[in-house]
Write a structure and sequence with these properties.
By secondary structure, the protein is an alpha+beta fold. Helix content is about 20%, strand content about 25%.
Length: about 210
């Protein structure tokens, strides 16, 4: 607009520094805003919780019930509550929960995911190519696990899924340590192996508990 006005006045001089800076700042602001809006992997659990509340946990992850299931147990879960030690708070040690399950027939490996549905599916745990069926507390490295750290005064439900697969997948979709609004779509992508074959998910083990801070 500024350039057009100047041209209309018949001025042959350069556009003023202030006008150029104004246009540059506007463009930069728009670019940053667009980049931030498209990001879904840098949202903290606390920030995600401040957004409008999504559906209840059972409604969000009801699709999991479509798969055959197997039992997963954990000594880190007592009376439906996760122990402090698994949390990433001043009360915890940021250790991944102890998990145990029976070997699933036909499974070549397992994928482990910890999900907080109430924070737009914040992914706390993402481990691939797991071949063990008994994991000690603290088994997962920090590159694959970050414990619960809900807002002060909040109680949240954290769900752990052990997915038995026939073969490896190309990658586990969804960002670790951030919100994953496409959780269902990304989960179902595990049903396609790295070679493009479908029917890769054999069964899903599920264990959930609450944590308050």
């Amino acid at each position: 607009m500024i350039l057009a006005l100047c041209a209309g006045c018949g001025s042959s001089g350069d556009v003023s520094k202030s006008a150029t800076e104004s246009i540059t700042e506007e463009a930069t602001t728009e670019a940053v805003t667009t980049e931030e809006a498209s990001s879904e992997e840098t949202v903290s659990e606390e920030t995600a919780s401040e957004a409008a509340e999504p559906e209840s946990t059972s409604e969000i992850n009801a699709f999991i019930d479509d798969y055959p299931s197997f039992e997963v147990t954990s000594t880190s879960l007592n009376n439906g509550v996760w122990d402090d030690v698994i949390s990433n708070t001043d009360r915890g040690s940021n250790k991944s929960p102890q998990l145990k399950w029976d070997e699933v027939d036909g499974a070549g490996l397992y994928v482990i995911i910890m999900d907080d549905p109430s924070a737009w599916h914040f992914m706390h745990w993402k481990s691939d190519n797991v071949t063990e069926t008994s994991l000690d507390e603290g088994w997962a490295p920090e590159s694959e696990y970050v414990g619960p750290y809900p807002p002060s005064g909040a109680t949240r439900t954290y769900e752990v899924y052990v997915v038995a697969l026939k073969a490896p997948v190309e990658r586990i979709k969804g960002g670790f340590g951030g919100s994953n609004p496409n959780f269902e779509e990304n989960f179902k992508a595990l049903d396609i192996d790295a070679e493009g074959n479908s029917g890769n998910i054999i069964a899903v083990g599920r264990i959930a508990g609450t944590f308050s801070y």
